[in-house]
């Protein structure tokens, strides 16, 4: 099962999704795509549906009733993938902050080099972020340092959302036990992968802030990450942490 599936959650990404889909299908490595759309009022799901005939059997759409959080969108995508014969499952943003060409590098880290999780890392070699204000760079970089300190994970970019999972990782983790629905979901998935002693590789990438559409970042996401990490670590030390 060497087939790869790229899971892309969307909410109001009509300005980006068509170009992204076409770019991924133009890569030399063959990937399938699953778009998980949370009932985008801008017609993102309809746009994806209009492309499906041209990419029959390769482009898939999972439409949900409303905006239920990034984490639940990915979990729905992971469960969809595990019901099918995909050996490698990817997380990727729809806004072009992640370069589609880097999918191949993440895939190679898992398929060729034997890692179980490959992270597209902004911070493993310096700070590789484009078009972010310094305040946001410092907040993101500081958050990753904080998470690394609290959890003990040897990962520089703990909040990264550009990831390749080997199928066995998602089969091992009990996805029904995932607690976080926002960006802290990214931390929790890495922590559970770490606790299961899977091999993790950080692949340096350049992160470019979106040029079209609106950011989904808000203060509740930051709060969830800060306080959720402490709770997550505490449970892993003093209780049987569900993995």
TrEMBL record:
<dbReference type="GO" id="GO:0004582">
    <property type="term" value="F:dolichyl-phosphate beta-D-mannosyltransferase activity"/>
</dbReference>
<comment type="similarity">
    <text>Belongs to the glycosyltransferase 2 family.</text>
</comment>
<keyword id="KW-0328">Glycosyltransferase</keyword>
<protein>
    <submittedName>
        <fullName>Dolichyl-phosphate beta-D-mannosyltransferase</fullName>
    </submittedName>
</protein>
<dbReference type="GO" id="GO:0016020">
    <property type="term" value="C:membrane"/>
</dbReference>
<dbReference type="GO" id="GO:0009247">
    <property type="term" value="P:glycolipid biosynthetic process"/>
</dbReference>
<dbReference type="InterPro" id="IPR001173">
    <property type="entry name" value="Glyco_trans_2-like"/>
</dbReference>
<keyword id="KW-0808">Transferase</keyword>
<dbReference type="Pfam" id="PF00535">
    <property type="entry name" value="Glycos_transf_2"/>
</dbReference>
<dbReference type="InterPro" id="IPR039528">
    <property type="entry name" value="DPM1-like"/>
</dbReference>
<feature type="domain" description="Glycosyltransferase 2-like">
    <location>
        <begin position="6"/>
        <end position="173"/>
    </location>
</feature>
<dbReference type="InterPro" id="IPR029044">
    <property type="entry name" value="Nucleotide-diphossugar_trans"/>
</dbReference>
């Amino acid at each position: 099962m060497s087939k790869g599936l790229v899971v892309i959650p969307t909410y109001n990404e009509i300005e980006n999704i068509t170009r992204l889909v076409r770019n991924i299908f133009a890569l030399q490595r063959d990937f399938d795509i699953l778009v998980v759309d949370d009932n985008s009022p801008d017609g993102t799901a309809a746009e994806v549906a209009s492309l499906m005939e041209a990419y029959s059997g390769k482009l898939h759409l999972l439409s949900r009733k409303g905006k239920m959080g990034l984490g639940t969108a990915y979990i729905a995508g992971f469960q969809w993938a595990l019901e099918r014969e995909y050996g490698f499952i990817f997380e990727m943003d729809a806004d072009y902050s992640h370069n589609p060409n880097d999918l191949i590098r993440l895939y190679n880290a898992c398929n060729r080099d034997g890692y179980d999780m490959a992270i597209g890392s902004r911070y493993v070699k310096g700070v590789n972020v484009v078009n972010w204000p310094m305040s946001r760079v410092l907040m993101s970089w500081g958050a990753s340092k904080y998470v690394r300190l609290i959890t003990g994970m040897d990962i520089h970019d703990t909040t990264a959302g550009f990831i390749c999972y080997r199928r066995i990782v998602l089969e091992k983790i009990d996805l029904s036990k995932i607690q976080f629905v926002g960006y802290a979901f990214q931390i929790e998935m890495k922590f559970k992968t770490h606790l299961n002693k899977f091999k993790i590789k950080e692949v340096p990438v350049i992160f470019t802030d979106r040029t079209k559409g609106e950011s989904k970042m808000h203060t509740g996401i930051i709060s969830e990450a800060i306080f959720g990490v402490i709770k997550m670590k505490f449970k892993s030390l003093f209780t049987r942490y569900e993995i």
